[in-house]
Design a protein that fits this description.
Helix content is 21%, strand content 30%. The chain is built from two helices and five strands, in the order H-E-E-E-H-E-E. The strands form two sheets. The protein has a three-stranded antiparallel beta sheet with strand order 1-2-3, with no helix packed on it. A two-stranded antiparallel ribbon has the order 4-5. It is globular and about 50 Å long.
């Protein structure tokens, strides 16, 4: 019985992989939203952009896409000295999402004392988000 379940699971995964390879999805997509959050006691306006960045091979053929989330403050005119911070860890799948919804992003998950998400699931403003600019390791000068 155990072998039958493993075989069935393998076939389902193989079928899903073949189907995913045959789909034609846009390789460069983007969704942009505007928000306000309170970080370190101050109101901060920002734009959140999510999308996919194509990866090409040596023949200029799209072979993969990378998903990204980009937060940009919109209440600062001179951005020349603003840091660009990349927040990612491991993969595949949802690994980097935890960097955004647990640490660096302007919104974080509601969690209990042990760090587990609280039901019903939801988010709240992250008062320590690096979007503020004060919590980065960047030093101008």
């Amino acid at each position: 019985m155990k072998n039958a379940i493993l075989f069935t699971t393998f076939i389902i995964l193989l079928t899903g992989f073949a189907t995913a390879q045959s789909r034609k999805l846009p390789v460069d997509t983007m969704v942009v939203t505007n928000h306000t959050s309170t970080i370190n006691g101050s109101k901060v306006t920002y734009r959140a952009t999510t999308g996919t960045q194509p990866v090409w091979d040596e023949n200029d053929k799209e072979v993969a896409t990378l998903f990204y989330t980009y937060y940009r403050r919109t209440d600062i005119n001179n951005t020349a000295n603003r840091p660009l911070i990349m927040s990612f860890n491991g993969g595949p799948g949802s690994a980097s999402v935890w960097m955004h919804v647990a640490y660096t992003g302007p919104q974080v998950l509601n969690i209990d004392e042990e760090g587990f998400p609280v039901q019903p699931y939801g988010v709240h403003e992250n008062p320590y988000s690096i979007l503020d600019g004060r919590y980065s390791f960047y030093k101008s000068g």
